Amino acid sequence: MKTSKYLNALHCIVIALKSGWLSLLSIIAVIILTVNVEQGQALILNLFDQNFGNLLLFLFQVLFMAMIVSHYPNYLELYFENVMHKFDWKLNQPVILGMGIVTYQYKKDQKWESDCDLGIWRKLLGVLFLSICMYAFTETYYLQISQYANSISPFLKIHGFWSFTLIFVFNVLMYLLFRYLFQSFTKVPRLIDLLILLFALGIAALSVYINEEEKGWSAVSSVLIVICMLLLNAAGIILIYFRSYTLLKNHAVYLTVLSVFGWINFIILVWANFQPHLFNPLIIIMAFLNLFYGLFVIVIKHRFYYGQKGITQSIYRVFFNYLAPILIILIPIWYLVAEVIGNDLHALKVIPESTEVSSYQDFKRNFKDK
Q: Which of 20, 50, 132, 221 could form a disulfide with 54 if both were Cys (CB 3.0 to 4.6 A apart)?
């Protein structure tokens, strides 16, 4: 009996890692690019200096990515548990080139109860993503203060692992508070939606003030961005844990919102190729993470749909079952090759510094001769 419990626990850990690997990869990428490299701190500070559109856009990218990393592993779990056949997969209108919003429901007389309660794990990934992004701002604040200030208060000396731990614990406590409050809020229709709207307006107002009034990094703007991130985390926790109480409780509506956000990120990536100076690199990185994750899950969900019996669109069946998985692997590789090896900048050689110095009279005489 004990052996079977251990095997089941091991199975749940494996499924959790396999279903959440893209979410974990996104979290690790954010950690590396914003915290572990000095350029990441410079990019965060640059968000304070650019127009308010960049900071506001980045904050909402963080919010939607938290929703994505907490929701999309659900489909990967169904894939790795090999239980897709227990559901009816529906392709909702509008359908363009065989693609649309794919939803599912149990088939008649078909029920599947997982031995692993991975819902907690998925939602924890979303909270972890929010905590990491807030930690990136607070750690940048600490590094800037410690570099220029003569003395630092004991509270500000809390950074690194302990700073992240405090943020994560605070988010967990915020979740517990909301769970207690929403027992009463659910009796008042649309009150939770109003709360999310107020959080969103607060985020927008603070980001505009930081860029337009503070005009760059300062002690005041750093405090304001922490308040902004707290509002962002609160909105994210509500949408991750209590979505069933909001206007997004309908699964198709929720996926449509995420799809619209995906198209916005696609437009950003295309636009950035023509006017790269308009967007902070963090926005481009976040857009790429969202688009890659979204395309990966879209292919899996459409394979579920076209893999059902009775689906007659043979062209789309062939595309999503055979060609699309190959393209999902090749497109990121092609993108990286185009960015890194696609130009000859890596082949440039440093010109040795010359010790020959021309006098002003020689320069003037040579200029006249030309």
A: 50
